Amino acid sequence: MRRTSPSEGPARQAAFAKKAAKGANPTTSALALDLIEANQALAAKSLARGEHDERSVRAANAPPAREGAHLLSKRQVLAIINVSYPTLWSWMRQGKFPRSRKVGSKSMWVSTEIDEWMAALPRCRLKGDTPEALDAPQRQRYAKARR
């Protein structure tokens, strides 16, 4: 069986309506001609697969925006910071990473604390950076390296 594109559907309907209009009485043929013209206009206007217009635009729904603090599980935190749990545990013991909270029997982290920790991370130094483009700790290291 041959597959047809979406734009062939209205064109085939128009051809069928023309054939039906030939054998119909005069009162229905005027209606059929209106349908034929409407179908032909639709066929001419229909879009190729993958294209869209203002009425038929589809996009993925955005995830719900979370405002304020929420709790993150161990799996979520490890996915965010991309380290192993032993490394995370070591950083918490050394005070380099925010400590978890006990929620029932699970360890959870407050999202705002994780966001603050990530914001405090130093920026990467790029070749040709001026001292003004660096953070304060990086400027000190830059100054030491220039001496």
User: Could you state the order of secondary-structure elements as H and E?
Assistant: HHEHHEEHH
Task: Give the number of domains.
Answer: 2
Per CATH, which architecture of the largest domain? Orthogonal Bundle
What's the alpha carbon Rg, rounded to whole Å?
Answer: 33 Å
- The CATH topology of the largest domain is Multidrug-efflux Transporter Regulator, Chain: A, Domain 2
Tally of strands: 3
Question: What does this protein structure show overall?
Answer:
The protein has 2 domains: 8-45, no CATH class; 68-147, Multidrug-efflux Transporter Regulator, Chain: A, Domain 2 (Orthogonal Bundle), CATH 1.10.1660. It has 6 helices and 3 strands. It has helices spanning 8-22, 26-45, 74-81, 85-94, 111-119, 136-146; strands at residues 71-72, 101-103, 106-110. The protein has a 3-stranded antiparallel beta sheet. A hairpin with a 2-residue loop joins strand 2 (101-103) and strand 3 (106-110). The longest helix is centred in the first third of the chain and has 20 residues, at 26-45.
Tell me the layout of helices and strands.
Blueprint: H1 8-22, H2 26-45, E1 71-72, H3 74-81, H4 85-94, E2 101-103, E3 106-110, H5 111-119, H6 136-146
Antiparallel strand pairs: 1-3, 2-3
Helix pairs in contact: 1-2
